[in-house]
Amino acid sequence: MDLIRRFLRRTWAERLILLEAFAWLCWARLLLLTVPFRWIAPHLGRQMAEGPATLADSDRLVVGRVSWAVLAVSRRAELGFVCLPQAMAAKWMLRRRKLTSTLYLGLRTNEKASLSAHAWLRVGDRILTGQAEACGHQVIATFGD
């Protein structure tokens, strides 16, 4: 109940972007559960391409709002919105706003010789999703606009 009250105290703009993030996260999760990744990949951007390394100051506010919404919904909705659905949802939200981004897929070997996969999204010089885990992962694929 407290979550609903906090949601209703938000502005209409914040509510809308939270609902949009929830919808995109659900769509990304559903796709990953039901469709082979090779069919999803072409919709993420050009493979092994990267977006620009700079971000206009006028776009920083929009990027910050998208990042906030995706991470806020992912934290509170316990529906398996891990790194890849987060990166996909944020990428699609930014694409709707005509902003370019790069989705990274990486691997890391841990002490027990097992692989750990991770996905993160970069816009300009800022990592939007998956920043904490991105260090130490070797990039195996990129999808840029």
Would you spell out the secondary-structure blueprint of this structure?
Elements lengths: L1 H7 L3 H23 L2 H4 L5 E2 L12 H17 L6 H14 L5 E8 L5 E9 L2 E4 L1 H4 L3 E7 L1
Antiparallel strand pairs: 1-5, 2-3, 2-5, 3-4
Helix pairs in contact: 2-4, 2-5, 4-5
Helix content: 40-55%
Shape: globular
Give the number of domains: 1
- Termini separation comes to 40 Å
Percentage of β-strand residues: 15-25%
Low-confidence stretches: none
Largest sheet, strands/sense/barrel = 5 strands, antiparallel
By DSSP (H or I, 4+ residues per run), the number of helices equals 6
* Alpha-beta content class: alpha+beta
Based on the structure given, which CATH architecture is correct?
2-Layer Sandwich
CATH topology value: Beta Polymerase, domain 2
- CA radius of gyration is 15 Å
Total count of strands: 5
**Which H/E pattern describes the elements?**
HHHEHHEEEHE
CATH class: Alpha Beta
Overall pLDDT score = 87
Neighbour order of strands in the largest sheet: 1-5-2-3-4
What does this protein structure show overall?
The protein is an alpha+beta fold. The protein has one domain (2-144): Beta Polymerase, domain 2 (2-Layer Sandwich). It has six helices and five strands, in the order αααβααβββαβ. The protein has a five-stranded antiparallel β-sheet.
